[in-house]
Fold these 4 entries.
Entry 1:
Amino acid sequence: MSEVPVPQYHRVKQALLREIESSDYAPDEPFITTREVCSRFGVSTTTAVRALDDLVREGVLVRKRGRGTFVTDKRQVRESIPSRNTRTLGCIFSGLQGRHMSEMLSGIESVCREAGYRVLLFDSAESAEKEAHNLQRALDAEVSGLIVCPVDGYSNSTHFNKLLERGLPLVMVDRYYPGLVTDVVVPDNFAIGYQLTDYLIGKGHRYIATLWGDTQCTSVQDRLSGYRRALQEHGLPIIPELAALISYEKLPERKRSELLQSWLEAPHRPSAFLCVNGYVMALLVKDLIHLGVNLSEEEAVLAGMDDVGPHDLLPFATIAAVLPSYEMGSKAMHLLLDHIERGEETRHILRHIVLPIDVSIKDLKPVHLQARAAKGARADH
């Protein structure tokens, strides 16, 4: 991935701002011309004009027809130079699908509206490359700060560190980079894995399979840690095949079918399936039906580690964690605004906020899972 550069016109503008701040320009004193900007900074006329135009738009400079560009009153200059150039904030999300994302965005937007900021929203569409591009777009828009829900994996750490080195306020929400020094707002993902597994064990389940979507992110890794801890505290074995952090969602259909078949025929056949979210659960139900499993007559339990999915976690889930989505967005925005408005006071204050989760339990008849070849399905996997 390429570096995320500071736009050339932005460097010129910041240099001119520092000069205005440190020099004693009298009101209505002529300022540097476009030609002089080109000569001093070695930039094109287009770059020089853009830098000067921004300063005029912000009230730092004023143009007078037939006379040129002038510095405004010093007091007005100080009042008009913000830490960034607009009351605009950037919001870069790994994706925009589902209720969880929309509720987080609602929490963000409500705080922004009250504070008099506007939000630019960027969709990374689960792509690290698009996320890096969105970071550049946010820089180009000269946002005052960023809230980011990062995509799976940690490939953009260099980009994020560059932003922090430039002093851009940044808050990560839902998941985060462990090595990045920034504020974080997340649900209690460890508790999700622990509490759901503990509940299932309490209902008599010894073998609980886990099914994942993304795998290289803190939310999933923390949930897996909670799952393992609950098994350990109850003295139950951790079966590697059932606890493996692999993406069921990204497996081809044939591989998913083979995996389920092997589980259902194993001595440690799971009696409960713990799905990372409703999307994975919906996929699991479809695959089980394809295998010929009659979900209304057999015996097993489906559980969701959050209530995010294409449906209301399906009628098959007996237990699901409920995420504090709106509060996550609201809290993240309050942290970001605090950094922006207090500036240097908060530069070395880092907050890692873990919000409690709720658990929804449905009194549903369990179903027994048994592998049968579906009509037209091959039996030789």
Note: The domain at 88-186+325-355 is CATH 3.40.50.2300 (Rossmann fold).
Entry 2:
Amino acid sequence: MKSATSSRFKKKALSLLFAAVTTLLPSSASSHEPGTEQNPLTHPQLTSRSVEFYQQSDDYNQDPAGHEIKNNPQRLKDIIHGTIFEDSPQAHFIRAYNHFTDFENANGILGFPSSREWLHDKDAQLGDVPTNNFLNQSWSIPLKGFYDSVLEEYQGAYPEGDHTWEHAVSQQSFESLGHILHLIQDASVPAHVRNDAHAGFPEWVRLFSTTDLHDDSYEIWAKNNLPLLSELHPAQMPQYQSITDILNAMIEFTGKNFFSDDSVGSFFGNNSYTSPDPDTLTQRRDGLRVYYYRQIEGEEIPIARRGYLRPLVLDDTVLREQWKVLGTKAVELGASAIQLYFKATESADPCIDHATIQCHDGDMYWIDSCGNVQDVAQYCTDNEDCDNEGCVGINPACDTHAYQECNQGQVYWKNSCGELEEIAERCTANQDCENARCVAPQPPQCQSHADRICSNSDVYWQDSCGNLEGIAQDCLENESCTDNSCVRRSCINNQETYVEGNLCWQKVPTNQQMTSRQAIQHCENLAYANFSDWRVPTIRELRTLVRGCPDIEIGGACPVYSGPDVDWNGDCTNGCPEASGPGDNGCYMTISVQGPCGGTWSSSQGGGGPFEVGVWALNYQRGIITYSLLNYQNPIVRCVRDD
């Protein structure tokens, strides 16, 4: 019998272990917030919207079986219950580790089954949790001891048990249907299909820590903006032949079109994903912010914003538009799953696909729930016998799972002797098998030299698919690329404009003090010297006009050329003797421009830190660079245009 002291020590040790690792947990975590039946959050509310959308369909009106949810309110409660408890919140969300599927390679995280596999894997859902998987990464090692302790109550097995699609249909279980809807909704979260592990870390930790776990901005945004469910407008309920096709459709749509927190930063060099393709994105400016747009189902959607501490970020504007698209798709495909569920359960004795695997004609075959032989699950080699446990090797000379190869439109394993084994990856109806991978069909052959386009100030050839080819016309220094051809620049040195390099300046600025926003609006609305494409110059462009004050000339000691993350005191603010420059009125600028030259606005963000809103300004009279708040009205503006 254990002593009371020993029992108290064990409880204290477990409490300390819990405190040590709770920040590592996928706190409610690796998916949309489930909430509770009394306080439903993202998952149950998406489920309710899917049920409502299904009940508006012609299929619902024509199929009496679907009225079961309306006629028996307990059915909807069962579905909601399943949606919440697929995450197993009572065991610190251990089932959630099986809710990831990489949209390109189909893998899960940390060696856990992918959500595609979890959807059908009865043995995994009824089996023990493989907590040794937490030893695969250094950051997840503490989770093994924690979950071993948590799962003692469940004898090491997953809570909730079998809620596969096969169980949902064969047992006509509405609760299991709710579990399935949860998996589809998780596949509408980019982090879940780009295998971006995440947990309850604050934003500043995500920026400066090397850990693989962080809070997911999209899930947190959705949780905090549940009233915006009204912005979801489902329009179609696609019909699918299998639940796997529905899940695959959600996975591919999300992964190909949207970034997650950790994969958005890889946009500029270390991105292992082929989509979204940077070359297909359109840049648009919104004030001082630059957004990257992607065409999704005929609409231009912002999927990232240019950041300050990271190359790209997902801000509130991006997340809101992402929610409208992905939330709507989750509701639509959730309704498709409900429709498929009722079709599958209509028969008194439905035959469930892929119910078991048995030996047949020397190989392992899938058998449906009616005992009908279906497709091959595993080919047994010449060195293997087939029994109900699988393919058993006779001659160990051939190493199993040596490599993968396409066979009959699917990706199969082959052993080191070149003999076919089981399927490694199932390709959908919309995929081809190429080079041992399931890929989208190749686009038609692109016709070379189909068109000409302006790029990098020259004229380039473009093929019929929109890909840039070789140079077609090299524009001279006094020419610009306009309407896909080289044309002589129209901006010249005269009483109104001054040309330096590729820039055309207002010779005399507008002699009016204004705020930064007023300056931006002024230049954008300016019609001057027969041009209407004026803008506020960057701080680097303003420095090209400096003469006689070395610290702030291009190449001078002042380090300010663009963003806010520089030490701008000292070399930028030492200044030169006031009004003693070589230019007009003693300005420290070229004599080719005239007029007032005090503080002059730039369009470059500046300030003492990333959270202080201001822009850089250059004072040509005193020879200093500093920053001004957006609503500060002292500076003037000298507009510029690209020539």
Note: The two ends are 89 Å apart (CA to CA).
Entry 3:
Amino acid sequence: MANSATHPEVIIESLATKDSIYYPNEKIILPASYSNFTITYKVPSFSSPQNVKFKYRLKGLENEWHDNG
């Protein structure tokens, strides 16, 4: 069986800072002083959730991708 690398759509649910929670339909502008934030995301209806792996990078700030499980 061939290994097909499919990339399902990642859905961002929210972005949280120390002061606020933002949702995808909101415009987000963070001050430079906000160096910590949390992004909540998911991949719905994936047939093998145990095989889902995520990587991220901050485009324009870094070139390397980081594993996030």
Note: The beta strands are 11-16, 21-22, 38-42, 55-56, 66-67.
Entry 4:
Amino acid sequence: MINLNNNQNKINSELFNNLVNLLVQELLKIQSKKMTDYQIIFNIFNQFQFIETDWSVKELIDSTYYIDQFKNEFLYSHFLKRSEYEKLDKDKLTSLATEIVTGLFAKKIEARTSENLKNYKPNLDDFKSMVNEVLICESRFYKSLIKVHDITSYGAYEYGVVQLQLANYKMTLTRMLSSDYNWKIKTKAFIQFYLIEKRFKFKSA
């Protein structure tokens, strides 16, 4: 989290610049793909993910029981419209990323709580519970699928919840893969995520 002490200014500045640079790289990637609207989600571990959903992240979190871990780790989100980034060059993307990360830092300073002390390494029991939440929400999404005249439609809310859960899963997985857990645990977690994500993308296509 952000530390306001003078001797931490340099560290905070480096973190800010690193996040801006990382966000610019991600914005360049999505520019090269199909244009769409995204929500950029940040957590207290300085990670972020892009998700596509018609619902705001706050609405999804407030209305869904199965996002307990994310409620503890969620810090900030920014709704990114296609028109904001589709024609920008790198310099303007840097300005946009700086604006977004500035909002994140404002939230970090505002949220100086015991959450600062949370361990970067995920707890395995919490991780298993999170995966179960993902599977439950995924199952509800599949139940919302309706096929009419060979066209499949689905509930936007259920879709958004799974998107949010997968974003949470991916951020937690990143922390797990960089931890000192053994390779069996890391491999199982990675393969499980890969299969769930591929299945979800296939069925929601």
Note: The first strand starts at residue 38 and ends at 43.
